[in-house]
Amino acid sequence: MSYIKNTDFFSPELNTKTALPFFLSEVAAGFPSPADDYIDKKMDLNEHLINHPAATFFVRAYGDSMRDANIGSGDILIVDRALDAINNSIVIAVYNGELTVKRLKQTGAKLFLMPENEEYPALEVTEETSFEIWGVVTYIIHKA
């Protein structure tokens, strides 16, 4: 099961900017372009990855229930609380008191939190379920 520890929530640090080299040519699975010797501009990842700074947080995922969505144990998720969770969104949710990352799926009148690993069951949200969506996952950061 993919889960989230309460100690693994982070706010973005927006006061510091780190501009990194950004190559304008695309990466091919062949030889690099000689034009890449010239960096045309720099990119600040905060500007690229965070659309709503006051509503964005980072959280570390644990477990393998979202493995087929390319979310692995230890990955950092960028979560935006300003976005509306829609069908098929990957969300951070509280399900019966447990924080989890799952895909939101609506089938007819039923709502589910779906794992992306067939070894785990879907979590149905019913009237008896304690359930709250904390935000929508917008980016996944993991090591190559």
UniProtKB/TrEMBL annotation:
Coiled coil: none annotated. Residues 22-137 form the Peptidase S24/S26A/S26B/S26C domain. NCBIfam families: PRK10276.1. Pfam families: Peptidase_S24. CDD domains: S24_LexA-like (cd06529). The lineage of its organism: Bacteria, Pseudomonadati, Thermodesulfobacteriota, Desulfovibrionia, Desulfovibrionales. PANTHER family: LEXA REPRESSOR (PTHR33516), LEXA REPRESSOR-RELATED (PTHR33516:SF2). GO terms for molecular function: DNA binding; hydrolase activity. Belongs to the peptidase S24 family. The keyword Hydrolase applies. Keywords: Autocatalytic cleavage, DNA damage, DNA repair, Hydrolase, SOS response. This is DNA polymerase V.
